[in-house]
Amino acid sequence: MAALLFDWEDAGENRAVASVETERVAPQAVRAAVEEGTLPVGESTLFTNYTVYGSGAVRVESRTEREGEEPPPIVPLMGMQMVIPSTFQVTRYGRSPQETHADRKTGAAVGRYTADVDSFVTPYRPFLIRSR
Questions:
Q1: pLDDT tens across 108-119, in order?
Q2: Angle at 35 between CA 90 and CA 39, to 5 degrees
Q3: CA angle 5, 126, 86 (to 5 degrees)
Q4: pLDDT value at residue 84
Q5: C-beta separation of 36 from 45 below 8 A
Q6: What are 60-101's pLDDT values in tens digits?
Q7: Cβ pair 99, 132 in contact under 8 A
Q8: 69: which residues sit within 8 A by CB, 6+ positions away?
Q9: Integer Cα distance of 112 and 99 in angstroms
Q10: What is the distance of C-alpha 4 from the center of its chain?
């Protein structure tokens, strides 16, 4: 199983953008729909919508579609990396302002939390915490 996951580890670094479409979705909002072509493993295509609002808020929605009839041998956790200026703030919906593990659901309330970008820096791979 480890070999299957190893193939996915750097898949995002080797992807190629197949298409980008933009549209105005509201008077003060635009959306860029990006199809990132077939990822180099798993015969999967990544689709990401970036909606940018006049207020400066950005909404990111991402999904993958797999080609073929066969189910994948394993579906990895997927994440995203982006660079945001340290003067910005991030709002997230989740369980507590800090990272939490799936087995600690009673340790923090679900809610909307806002923090400086600097507080989101983690000294480890973010997907290990699964919820931030």
A1: 788 888 888 887
A2: 100
A3: 140
A4: 80
A5: yes
A6: 998 888 777 776 666 666 777 778 888 888 887 877 666 666
A7: yes
A8: none
A9: 13
A10: 21
Q: Which CATH class is domain 14-68?
A: mainly beta
Which helix (H) or strand (E) segment is 22 a member of? strand 19-26
34 within 8 A of 15, measured Cβ to Cβ: no
Burial per residue of 60-76, b for 16 or more beta-carbon CB atoms within 10 angstroms, e otherwise: eeeeeeeeeeeeeeeeb
User: Can you give the C-alpha Rg of the chain in angstroms?
Assistant: 17
Cβ pair 28, 54 in contact under 8 A: yes
52-61, Cβ contacts within 8 angstroms, sequence gap of 24 or more: 53/26, 53/28, 53/29, 54/28, 54/29, 55/28
pTM beyond cutoff 0.85:
no
Distance between the two ends of the chain, CA-based, in angstroms? Answer: 25
What token pair was written down for 92? 């997230």
